[in-house]
Amino acid sequence: HTFLVRSGSYRAVIRVNCANPGKLGIDRLRELKILEAVKNSDFVPDTLYRDSSVLVMEYISGYTLNDEFLGSPVNRSRLSSVLERSQTIFVTGLNPFSYLDCCKGYARDLPYDPSEFVDWEQLCAVAMEIDKARHAPVLCHHDLVAENILIRDDAIFLIDWEFAAMGHPAYDYVKLFGEDIYRGMLAQRDISSGDIKQINFLQSGIDHLWYSANKIMRRQAKSGV
Hints:
Blueprint: E1 2-7, E2 10-16, H1 28-38, E3 47-50, E4 54-58, E5 63-64, H2 67-70, H3 73-86, H4 99-108, H5 120-131, E6 138-140, E7 149-152, E8 155-158, E9 165-167, H6 171-177, H7 193-223
Antiparallel strand pairs: 1-2, 2-4, 3-4, 5-7, 6-9, 7-8
Helix pairs in contact: 4-5, 4-7, 5-7
């Protein structure tokens, strides 16, 4: 649950964490470490208070990412620059993120076979291959939907770092730009078009699993289970 609060003219956002974050693939200890690592970055709102139950952050007035903004080559370059800077931040004490474990974690809590709505065998095979890729893990936000990217004047902010981890360097780029990674992006990473297609497939599968897990949790919350 998220609340907007005010003290005089100052506004802040209070997030009260869900009771079973692990079922949604969220590691609160990992999130706290990452928030500490990014706290001085100009693309992250100020953290005012945090613990395992509550997060209080500066409220950013602005608008969320939209197609018009994303359609501008200049703005795409600005977004790419933010990702480049975020990937230079190293978080100590974190193991590389396992996409295979992520998929299995979601599937484990489903009351039905995940093969009913995703190509489960292929998804696991792709996740395993990405986990074994030679690319050094970098800080990935892992949830760059439009609502988590705020634009204010000339500044771009990334919010909601719940799913962030040390992951594949192309993951956030594919989430933002799809398979159409623009010229110059990831140029130094030696990432092939095949890698991009695999990550796009992986993201789609993980999204389906997450939405299913989230739907079940909401249903259980309503029924008091």
